[in-house]
Structures are given as structure tokens and as C-alpha cells.
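User: C-alpha cells for Carbamoyl phosphate synthase small chain, please.
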Amino acid sequence: MKRLLVLEDGTVFEGEAFGADLYVTGELVFTTAMTGFQELITDQAFSGQILSFTFPVIGAAGINRDDSESITPTCLAVVVQHLVEMPSNWRQQMTLDEFLKRKKIPGIVGIDTRQVAKIVRKFGRMKATVINKGDSIDHILDQLRATVLPKDQVRQVSTKTAYAVPGFGKSIALIDLGVKHSVLRQLSQRDCNVTVYPHDISYDELMEQQPDGVILSSGPGDPHQVKKLCRLIQKINGQIPIWGMGLGAQLLAQAYGAKLAPMEVGHFGLNIPVREIATGKIEITSQNHLYSIARDRLPHDLLVTHENVNDHSIEAFRHRYQPILGVQFQVDASPGPRENLYFYDEFLELIDAKIHESRREKE
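Assistant: Done. Predicted C-alpha cells:
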């Protein structure tokens, strides 16, 4: 079946249908990742977005039960150039086509996805539609341009009730903005006793549990739409260590007075270089975010620790006086480089320091 990818600027790509037989409209983004398509499709940070892969061959490893980052993926559609219909990986349990059909996600194959990336880079963020061929292009464009995209993606992907990932170590309250399974795995490997909470948990409910530390997970959407969580962060005010990842880092910065700005293209890929300012060390990182922290409006209390090599945007920061850590890039190693897993240990060190400080005050 013929299927179209129609961009808001009027560009039309024709390809073949795979996955679910659905018509969707959403924000178009691309990723330069050469691996980890299952992890990316199931990453809740892509909720409400049409995900285009610039790497030309997708699906060779198939889908397995271990590599998903969520049970129910919420990306709107998948765009690829060439789809592997017979995966060869020994762990594969189904093809990407079968998986998308089960999850009710449409796909389109046979698209020049690198050309798609060039258009997005040139003209910036835009809406797009994936639709079966048949309707007139003018009608499709009229509907596309009139569509108002939802802004409450965090509410859609966050857990509705709290749940535990038990351990015997430090008590971590993880506020779910679209948490990835690999983050929970990393915390479990460090024997943390994790409780995952909904995004709208109140200050009193959180502090009643007396956590040793709080993590704000990565997630989708506009950070300006999650104002309640900013007020929660302000109420905590350094009483316990907080670590923000991705969207969580943006909310953390915003709560402490930083300004956020939408990016024209965003950072999407597994090979984005980041510089640690103190040492000059270069790390290769995995990223998927559309907002940046404005460096010229950064409060003095927030210290930039890492910056993007390509555009010098802020990638990580600390609070000068409070146990606060924010990291824009992915720190879960799935998929992507594993060289920044030390942030987990740094956060646990912040918790240790806070515990020792509290004990001294009591003495």
C-alpha cells in the first residue's frame, strides 16, 4: 500500500506502508542513531512525535523482550529508508513491522530520510502527517496546518500510581516524566531502593516518604507545561539531593530561575560530543531534547559543568551551594555510549554527603 509523509512546508514523500494502518499528525523529528531502534521507538521522550531514522537500514536486529524502554511506546509513527523484513539477531522474537502493528503505530518505508533531516535542519521544527495515499495533497495540508498539537505529553506517559523497584540501599524517589527502563536498571545495579511516583505528586506526599534523594526523569514535551513540578522543586529547596535528567534537568534549571528556549532542530542522536569544562575531556553522548537552557540568562547559583561541542549549549550543571545536579543528555547507556554512567555514582555521593551533614547537625 502506498503511504505519504507530508510536511508542513508542503514537501511530500511517497513510500510504502508498514506497521499499523492509521493516519497520524505530529511533530517531525529525526535521529542520527545507527543502532538501538527498539529502545528509541519505546522511549517515552518521543511521545507525540513522528520519528525518522537517518541511518538507512532499520530493523536488522528485530524486536526482543529485553530492549524496550517502556511497555507501551507513544511515538506516533516511524519513518525509515529501508526496512529489514527478515531479522537475523539470535534474540529477535518478531519483526519491527509486527511490533508496530501490535502497538498500533504506523510506519512508512522507502523515504529518503536524510533529505528529511536536511529539511528539518534548514527550516526548523515542523508538523507532519503520515497518511495512506488517496486524499488530495491540498486537503491533507489544510488539515495538517490546522492541527494543534497536544502539550500535555507528560500527563499521558507518567505512571498514574506509585510503584516500587525494591532494593536495600539508598531510598530514591523517582518522579516519572517518561522514565526509561534502563534508568531503573542502573539504579537497581547500585542496590537503590526506588519508588516511582506520578508527575503530579505533592510536596507533602513526597516528603512523607523521607527519601534520601529525588530523581526527575527524562520525558517528552514542553517543560513550561509542567509548572507544578517546578513549585515542588522550589519547596524542597536543597533539603534533599535532586538529580534532573533530560526534561527533568530543564525543570530543575527553570525552578532555580534559568530561562529555557525551544531549539530550531534539537539534539537527537547517539554520537553528540560534550565537553566537561573543568578538564576539557570530550564525551560522546546520546541525546533527544528540543529545549535548551539559555546561557545568557543563567542564575549565578547554577554552575555549567558540561557544554555541547557543536553549539556550546549547556548540557549539564550543578548548584553552587545545594546538592543539585542536572544533565540534559541520556545517562542510561541504552542505546548509546556508556562513558557517562559515573553520574549515577556522583548523585549517590551527593546523598552520602547530605546524610553526613544531617548527622553532624543532630550531634
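User: Anything notable?

Assistant: The chain has a mean pLDDT of 94.
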